[in-house]
Amino acid sequence: xxxxxxxxxxxxxxxxxxxxxxxxxxxxxxxxxxxxxxxxxxxxxxxxxxxxxxxxxxxxxxxxxxxxxxxxxxxxxxxxxxxxxxxxxxxxxxxxxxxxxxxxxxxxxxxxxxxxxxxxxxxxxxxxxxxxxxxxxxxxxxxxxxxxxxxxxxxxxxxxxxxxxxxxxxxxxxxxxxxxxxxxxxxxxxxxxxxxxxxxxxxxxxxxxxxxxxxxxxxxxxxxxxxxxxxxxxxxxxxxxxxxxxxxxxxxxxxxxxxxxxxxxxxxxxxxxxxxx
Length: 277
Hints:
The structure is a single chain. The chain is an alpha/beta fold. The chain has two domains: 2-122, NAD(P)-binding Rossmann-like Domain (Rossmann fold, 3-Layer(aba) Sandwich), CATH 3.40.50; 124-153 and 181-241 and 256-277, Rossmann fold (3-Layer(aba) Sandwich), CATH 3.40.50. It has helices at residues 11-22, 80-90, 105-111, 133-139, 156-169, 187-198, 209-218, 223-234, 238-241, 246-251, 258-264; strands spanning 2-5, 26-31, 44-47, 63-67, 69-70, 75-76, 94-98, 116-122, 141-144, 150-151, 175-179, 185-186, 203-206. It has a seven-stranded parallel β-sheet, sandwiched between helices. The chain has a two-stranded antiparallel sheet with strand order 5-6. The chain has a two-stranded parallel sheet with strand order 9-13.
């Protein structure tokens, strides 16, 4: 069976592609720029844009991994009804919808469809902490607002593994899974875990909310995205810090810890002159 993965070059999308390949399935990877995409041999790379449903090739696929947002600014996707209608017409059987943290027209269209749908709702990705890498390498510090809210952040590899298992094996239709890691950690605790992984003490500096917002705007984030991210961090909903077993229930193994993620990615936080265990 061939499975279409949209957002295939993203942190979770690449994991979905890799997991499907490991399960022995043919993969069609959708990207807005095929020339810059890098995938293993055997992956069918196609160009398309979720904001232009007519460019998304649903023909000949039995399952689809869909995103609820798109574009460089992670804007909410409003073409969900048309995308789902095209998938149904093409004979797609199963679909996963990857939640972006807010109400989504695409999710509404998916759950109202005739498809065998599964909604995946990950909390914070562990890979989001890679945004700290340059500051850790150059200054040995992490600057973030809101020291004490906790997050049950999830390994992006577990997101990919759950999506692949659902699409490849079926049996999860009509379910919504909240994807978390095995523990809930504050930002200072996350910083300490990374420090342990690289064998170096890292200083946590608590920013003001305005400092964090200005930094995101200077990095090219839109005001809408900056305000959404800050609101999520400031007033973390219970789903964001509550550990659940959905990853383990789907995969038959525990969710991976942040410590294991930090060891896997330790090199990103270490300068050429740095030390590492």
